[in-house]
Write a structure and sequence with these properties.
alpha/beta, single chain, 206 residues
Length: 206
């Protein structure tokens, strides 16, 4: 069933791109739909290992003209804004289908390196990326991902903030594209009276 799943992902991505009239730049042997599909396959099926995903797509003749790892990474980075827009559109559609009108807001840390390697980190620089994980009673170096999901765990909104940012400060960076009557459940770490007083933000419950 794995090839069928990959083909389904490609068809879904390709339809989304056609729906917004997106076209791949001239001269590219691999379409943007194939690049995005390979990235999704890497995350869903290979635990983020892009080399394994590239090998799979090429060896199974699903995207035989994919570039090497470095070229693939450059193409994928160039599609960052497009991916965010597609995520917002899909998230909006999921919200329209969410009959329960209930959502869950939470965050989790994403470390870019072990603490002992912080000084050698090339991806991130600065003290603002050194955060604290209360559940594990330990520090980490990276970013904190704020995500809103449906009650079934389907993500509909997401943003990245430095690891040192607390949840109450970070909630203002989300889109908050919700309908009247929607309820967002969160823990007490998101307590922010200033944010709750903003018009249309009364849906946040602890």
């Amino acid at each position: 069933m794995l090839p069928d799943k990959v083909i389904s992902i490609y068809c879904f991505v390709d339809d989304l791109l056609k729906g917004i009239h997106h076209s791949t730049k001239e001269g590219c042997r691999t379409s943007d739909a194939e690049i995005i599909t390979t990235a999704l396959v890497s995350a869903l099926l290979f635990k983020g290992n892009q080399c394994a995903a590239l090998d799979y797509m090429v060896s199974h003749n699903m995207a035989p003209l994919l570039p090497q790892k470095s070229g693939f990474t450059k193409r994928l980075h160039g599609l960052a804004d497009l991916l965010l827009m597609l995520f917002q559109q899909v998230g909006h559609c999921i919200k329209q289908l969410n009959c329960s009108h209930r959502y869950v807001l939470d965050s989790y840390p994403l470390a870019v390196c072990h603490n002992i390697r912080i000084r050698r980190s090339k991806l991130l620089k600065g003290k603002e990326f050194r955060g604290w994980i209360a559940g594990k009673q330990q520090y980490f170096y990276g970013v904190r991902i704020q995500v809103v999901t449906t009650g079934e765990g389907i993500p509909v909104e997401v943003c990245f903030v430095p690891g040192a940012a607390n949840d109450a400060e970070a909630i203002g960076r989300l889109f908050w594209d919700f309908e009247p009557g929607d309820r967002i459940l969160a823990d007490s770490a998101y307590t922010s009276y200033v944010f709750e007083d903003w018009p249309g933000k009364q849906a946040l419950k602890y």
